[in-house]
Amino acid sequence: MTTMDRLVGAGVDRIDGPAKVRGTAPYAYEQDPGEPIAHLAVVQSTVNRGRISRLDPSRAEALPGVLAVLTPANAPRLGKGLASDLPVLQSLDVHYQGQVVAAVVAETSEIAKAAVGAIAVGYDAEPPDVALSPDREDLYAPEKLMAGFATDSIIGDVDGALAAAVVSIDATYETPTQHHNPIEMHTSMARWDGDSLTLWDADQGPHNIVNDLVTGFGLDAGQVRVISPYVGGAFGSKAFTHPNQMLAAMAARVVGRTVVYELTRQQMFSLVGHRTPTIQRLRLGADPEGRLTAISHEVVEHTARIAEFAEQTATPTRVLYAAPHRRTTHRLARLDVPPPTIMRAPGETPGMFALESAMDELAVVLGLDPVELRIRNEPERDPERDLPWSTRNLVECLRTGAERFGWAGRDLRPGVRTEGRWLVGTGVASATYPTRRRKAQCRISVDGAGRYVVEIDGSDIGTGAWTALTQIAADALGTDMASVELRIGDSRLPFAGGAGGSTGLASWGTAIVFTARDLRKQLDEQHGGQPPAGGLSVDGELPGESPHAKTHSMHAYGAHFVEVRVDRDSGEVRVPRATSVYDAGTIVNAKTARSQLLGGFSMGVSMALHEGSVTDERYGHYVNHDLAEYHVATNADIGEIDISWLDVDDQLANPIGLKGIGEIGITGAAAAVANAYWHATRLRIRDLPITPDKYFRELGES
Amino acid sequence: MREFRYERAADPAAAVALLAAAPDGAFLGGGTNLVDLMKLGVATPDVLVDVRELTSREVADLPDGGLRIGAGVPNADLAADRRVRERFPVLAQALLAGASGQLRNRATTGGNLLQRTRCGYFTDVTKPCNKRSPGSGCGALEGVHRNHAILGQTIAGSDDPATCVTTHPSDMAVAMVALDAVVRVLGPDGEREIPIAELHRLPGSDPSRDTTLRHGELVTAIDVPALGMPSRYRKVRDRASFAFALVSVAAALDVRDGVVRDVRLALGGVAHKPWRASAAEYVLRGMPATEASFAAAVESELEAATPLRDNAFKVPMARNVVVRTLLDLAGRDTERELA
Ligand SMILES: Cc1cc2nc3c(=O)[nH]c(=O)nc-3n(C[C@H](O)[C@H](O)[C@H](O)COP(=O)(O)OP(=O)(O)OC[C@H]3O[C@@H](n4cnc5c(N)ncnc54)[C@H](O)[C@@H]3O)c2cc1C
Ligand code: SF4
């Protein structure tokens, strides 16, 4: 490793921890704008498709304490160029259930909510079209996928190779709609000073939000300031602008006062995005030794009628295993649903469930250890881009994980181990996630006493980035953490992209390293290595992708080993223990990284066993739209999880050598659970989540 | 959410009088169910009469070895009560299987008994529901009903005002039904006692009514008579904690010399009320305490099941967990346990 890692790697406590634990860290809702705050509440459409035919605000307007009722009839016009569901209250047309059709601003949130109940809305509605199916005739191929990936990839003669394969499997897997549900509800507090807008907001990157406000309200970038240093979880729902930011800003302008809008938990199921459901057909062909000859991964998923979001579900299949003949495709159905969005490892999370389940099924047909099957298909180069890897240690993750978990000697037969009434099994799956970085700017200032201020519009959504960046900065500046004050979460700070795509530390951290190098160089060359009495300030920039990104394929990897127990009377599932080993390059903070990887894996268990937004196709809504009914894994569902990482780094990716850890933990996790479930029960459940009712369905008892 | 008045009363009689004068009013216990429903617009009381501090928070011994549980006793306190844990493990276990620690601290015995269904159409005022809005139809019958009832529903078509296929969500109430508890009530016309099996009702032709209580009747206490046999509660749910029952079983079994002398069996998650499995009990008394008799008994109970499109799994699930729970209880020696 490089010489700079004095603090990098250490398990430093979160610098924002004490303030959060004491409740003194102000989240968006808790900001003090210096004047009484007005509250906003919304009326949401009860139909998925149609037009508002009647909307009478007069009873609500007459209620004492109501400041304004905004409707499509009177809402200020927003600028052209807003996409998706951001042109809020600009038209009578309804595109999804839960769309905001009116908003009340009142002195208190109670009054606002009471007034919402006094607004009657009528619709000319058409029946909702919300059912995803691979048989729909209107499936279409998007021009490209999220993050710029190609829609399809076809190499060789897949159908011929499948037909000729000695061993093959052909199976269809389904993942449901999921909702992010961070603990902190999306919240936006807006205040206008003349034509300048300040928005305290729960988001994953203030700069991401600024542009839409500029477009919507016809402002210059300098007239908008978005502030969000503390964010209570996000998972992708807070990456982009949603109707809440537009509404708060619009309402504040109308009433001439600070307005706050905090979503209710129920509204989190319609206004801030979701993960698309997927239907994925996997076909694998192999020779008798288990070497893949063909891989085909065909994805059907949905998007909204008003916005195209094409999740890159089959992209992990393009890199994970070697095979001469290969095909990945994505087809979309445009439905009357709210716009889907990114959710922790978009693409890899649903895609790896299908691919890694299919690999397990293939291992079963071959009678081969599923770890060995994966090792036999390790590609020397990126199998589709035909490039060398920057670094790739998947095999070592599998071997190390097998060792730590106690995999050796595992009986391949399913349904033969019991402990009391529990059926016991074990399963494995790989993990992978792309390594990328993005443009970021940074300013570092030093005063005469050698105290540094590092400014960058990065974002800590609970990940520990604030702390890890401070470690990176301290090392890069050759100082200790106490001498570095890091400022993040404010669009007035130098530009940075949001927290997403596991690019945060790679982008912001690299910008900090570059800027720090500049500063030190200037100090050395012009000031004899000492900060001048009047201080010094340096602006720096990371232009974007690694120069090696075009010549090397860069990814993080991992392997999950899971034990599953299934109650043979009830079909209840438990995951008492798991081992995950990662190749994620340099680990910057051993403590917060472990939490990230643990959280990612737990979210994968949650996906495997619990999560799913259930649609009523007649009424077109998500029936279980609260946390009592949308089940997320509880503490009691998560057993002993052994997290570790290989001592590796990736210098081609960035000078810190890190690959990003926000998403790798969830990828593959659900497949490992489902594979272990099969090993415990002989039952292969291909549609998540694996709830107890499916046990009886597979047994043919219901 | 509708604006409401909040009232406290000097004593239970005054609380009853307050509510008698307020046809749209409601008693407030811990508020963990009622306040949620008010926020959703499902419950729209104009007056809340807070009875949490008014009803007894005591658990008192009854002469026969039973207990009188004040309606104000928090779920957490009741579950922790040494007498409850020793004499009525089924009740302590049922309480601990419900909700979360925070909710159990806040929730009261009276409120738990009278909590309302979790049906997703009931809790969403934009969808049809005969229970919430009589005559609007039943959204669940042909909708999302994986966790709905398999017994005693009223199935007369989605648009029929009588249709309701939901379940009662309380775990505690299932145990209380198995224990033959008696609900003590104070109403405008004075006190009365209601055997708990007669408190909750099936939807019949009026799904809007969960219970046989009349408006303004205050639950003051629940009497649990002595049991005299080992008991336990088994709950099956979608996750390990903090989820309502798919199926639950409250059972007590008295086996002497390998023969079932007495048995109590109630099922949760299967009907509009806690389901006393009287048919199974009848079949079992006097039978050898074997897996075969347990299976035969529960099957006789479940013969009446009329599962919906997506909840037929509850039949084998209920059968399995009843048999397993009875086997667990049979493996224990009543006389030694009670000695
Ligand atoms: C997320 C979540 C998960 C839950 N999980 C479970 C679970 O798994 N199992 C389970 O059993 N429960 C569960 N619960 C429900 C919980 O047990 C109930 O909300 C609680 O027991 C209700 O008690 P309370 O005192 O708060 O009632 P309140 O909400 O105050 O009242 C409930 C009803 O009872 C009436 N009432 C209250 N006291 C009296 C009285 N003395 N006389 C007459 N009427 C009265 C009220 O008017 C109201 O109609 C869960 C709740 C939540 C929110
Ligand atoms: S099952 Fe009962 S509670 Fe649910 S929608 Fe039907 S009538 Fe309402």
UniProtKB/TrEMBL annotation, chain A:
Q: Which residues form the Aldehyde oxidase/xanthine dehydrogenase a/b hammerhead domain?
A: 22-127
Q: Does the keyword Oxidoreductase apply?
A: yes
Q: Which keywords describe this protein according to UniProt?
A: Molybdenum, Oxidoreductase
Q: Does the keyword Transmembrane apply?
A: no
Q: Which domain of life is it from?
A: Bacteria
Query: Residue ranges of region Disordered?
Result: 524-550
This entry's Gene Ontology molecular function terms read: iron ion binding; oxidoreductase activity
UniProt protein name: Xanthine dehydrogenase YagR molybdenum-binding subunit
Q: What is the lineage of its organism?
A: Bacteria, Bacillati, Actinomycetota, Actinomycetes, Geodermatophilales
Automatic annotation (TrEMBL), chain B:
Question: Which molecular function GO terms apply here?
Answer: FAD binding; oxidoreductase activity
Q: Name one Pfam family in it.
A: FAD_binding_5
Residue ranges constituting the FAD-binding PCMH-type domain according to the UniProt record: 1-229
Which keywords accompany this UniProt record? Oxidoreductase
> Which InterPro entries does the annotation name?
CO_DH_flav_C, CO_DH_flav_C_dom_sf, Diverse_Substr_Oxidored, FAD-bd_PCMH, FAD-bd_PCMH-like_sf, FAD-bd_PCMH_sub1, FAD-bd_PCMH_sub2, Mopterin_DH_FAD-bd
The record's SUPFAM superfamilies line, in alphabetical order, gives: CO dehydrogenase flavoprotein C-terminal domain-like, FAD-binding/transporter-associated domain-like
Q: What is this protein called?
A: Xanthine dehydrogenase YagS FAD-binding subunit
